[in-house]
Amino acid sequence: MADALQNYIDGKWVDAADGSRFDVFDPSTAEVIATAPDSKSEDVERAVAAARRTFDEGTWWPGTPARERGRILLNAADIVSRELEPLARMESLDSGKTIVEARDDMEGVAHIFEYLAGWATKIDGDAQHLSSDAMFMVWKEPVGVVAGITPWNYPLMQAAQKLAAALAAGCTFVLKPPEQTPLTCLELPKILEEAGLPAGVLHVVTGYGETAGAPLVASPMVDKVTFTGSKEVGKIIMREASETLKRVTLELGGKSPNIVFADTDLEAAFEGSCNGVFWNQGEICSAGTRVFVEDGIYDDALNAFAEITGKVRLGDPSSEDTTMGPLVSQEQQDRVRRYLEIGEREARLAVQGILPTDPRLAKGYFVPPTIFADVDNSATIAREEIFGPVMSVIPFSSVEYLVAMANDTEYGLSAAVWTNDIKKAMMTARAIRAGVVWINDTQSAPPEMPWGGYKQSGIGRELGKEGVEDFLEHKVVYLNLS
Questions:
Q1: Catalytic one of 185, 285, 294, 346
Q2: Is 285 part of the annotated catalytic residue set?
Q3: Has 385 been annotated as catalytic?
Q4: For residue 288, what are the contacts with CB-CB under 8 A and spacing of at least 6?
Q5: CATH says 257-446 is which class?
Q6: CATH number of the domain at 7-252, out of 3.40.50.80, 3.40.50.970, 3.10.129.10, 3.40.605.10?
Q7: Active-site annotation holder among 101, 179, 187, 251
Q8: pLDDT digits over 194-204, tens only?
Q9: Is the pTM of this model over 0.70?
């Protein structure tokens, strides 16, 4: 890993045009581990122009055989698998997630490249005879130049799932990684160069949202923006994209219900409920932070949650024994701490974990896992996305009341239902307005499965067949046969 990172534009590693840089921090110690280009409009315009030129004038990439596009993505999957350990350690150092979780993420990245490689040769159209003297054909073509703006909670995975789908469809791509965690995203050009991707197809430009992301969204040479992040930024992107009527895919926030019925496997449900909030330090858009527990098992659930929370070990994310690392930044730590103060005024603090005692980690951005009990569904901590290891436990007595509470949110990304009654499970899943509903599980997101939300959790879908379709335009060709 280099101390001074660079942008990747048109097949070359370059600094920002004005030479400016920003610091990248280790969240566990608050120490600077690298610097990256603080890119501005000039850098973005250069990257977009190269991507536009490659798409419009280059015959190799948009017109390359689908089989070859798929082969490049398969090669990328093999390279990620080969480099899994160094990539995982880089991701852990940069984001604060534990090394165990980072390894799982890298396995997921390899699987994403492998799965989406297969779709390159499965993009098909349609044809229909209208009469003996007329027919039409539907051709599916790449949407063009894609701008990808990705989040810091799953840096390489989120970039890979956008990029691989776009490349499978035949698009060119400009990636703006998160300024907090750019390290592994800047490994993508190296991986794909080795895999056989030609220069000009992928470009990576680091910088802040206001000065690098905004000109990327505004550029008239960009055909589509795919973004994962906060609802607030998603709305800004949607407004700006409307100026040029760009296509958009927005994967935004959530305040997901996690529902525990009394007739479930309680041990699995209690463990899964905690995992659904505490995995990745709670920095998960689909985290099941509103935990609805049926009255008859409410006290048992709180006792179990307390026991599980007591086993969480905060510490150095590079240690194999650590089960929760720091939050990604000082800003995020401050945000979550504010919600903890609000929670203590709104509900009963049931349990809180222990901060690490290692003096090396004293300045790290740690927040202990925290559970609030007897939470009202109208409370701030039950309505706003906290993005940290904070659980709100809410009792319920009837399914009808439960469904009303679960749906009483501006979000609709995901939900989890824990019950051994399959009829109840399916009826509850049908009633909840969310893009993903897990039954007796939580947070599973295989690349074969489309991902996205209802309401203010986003627009469009990633992964699965639908994720590739979102990078395609449909062209109708009418043929007069008379």
A1: 285
A2: yes
A3: no
A4: 256, 257, 258, 273, 276, 277, 414, 415, 416, 442, 443
A5: alpha beta
A6: 3.40.605.10
A7: 251
A8: 999 999 999 99
A9: yes
